[in-house]
Amino acid sequence: MLNSKEAKELPGFKLYEFSYQxxxxxxxxxxxxxxxxxxxxxxxxxxxxxxLANCIVDHGYTVFMPxxxxxxxxxxxxxxxxxxxxxxxxxxxFHVLAGNHSSPIADWLRAxxxxxxxxxxxxxxxxxxxxxTGNFALSMMLESFVKAxxxxxxxxxxxxTPCLKSALHVDDETLCVVKQRVKEDGSVLGLRFSNDRSSxxxxxDRLSAELGDGFERIEIDSSPGNPYHNPWWAHSVLTLNLxxxxxxxxxxxxxxxxxxxxxxxxxx
Length: 268
Prior knowledge:
This protein is an alpha/beta fold. It has a single domain (18-263), classed as Alpha/Beta hydrolase fold, catalytic domain (Rossmann fold). Helices cover 34% and strands 19% of the residues. It has 8 helices and 8 strands. It has helices at residues 47-58, 78-89, 105-120, 136-139, 162-165, 172-185, 201-211, 249-265; strands spanning 14-20, 23-31, 35-39, 62-66, 125-130, 146-152, 188-193, 215-220. It has an 8-stranded mixed β-sheet with strand order 1-2-4-3-5-6-7-8, sandwiched between helices. Strand 5 (125-130), helix 4 (136-139) and strand 6 form a beta-alpha-beta unit. It is globular and about 45 Å long.
């Protein structure tokens, strides 16, 4: 874990340590308004993740961004990604092949959401998961105040078998709670690139089957030769592969995330 003495400051963010059941992680906080927990992707909190956090802040929210792995501010590279994935594969906090239960870190994240809600109150808390952390947004729906869950290219479990491709990284009990929440007055937003093998179509098909109209799926064309110039290997909708140009599907996806937060968290 990155302790407070080693933690890197980010301009505009306050940095504090949050502990739950002997698990400690540093949390970056910035903004005013309803709370949104932004869970970063592999390899860590790099520049585009910080830009996403600042964008959410600029739209009227308080962002809480826990540092879960990686080096803050370090530029992504293939070697860096592989290194962090290797660490996650043996981490006690992440169970990368678990199809029918969530990773232990989800308990810590729910505890963080309880602290955020206790402080800010309002109509609820938003949670945004990216890649490795994508499906944690489902696990966090065990907390009734989590009103705006966003799953961007959910990558767990690693889709190494046909069964794992459709798995949701939650147990049956949690899925039942999620389905009931959606049925009563909830919604889950999911984002992925159409050609993304690490966040496969079967996973979104499963979410659609389980949640029905309560799952809003946005799939952006990344097939070879697509008209939007998305590379065939595109993965990170809101960060690394975001093309922030008017009318581009990734920019529209970002705007939909912001409007989803507004709808669910009642920002005026």
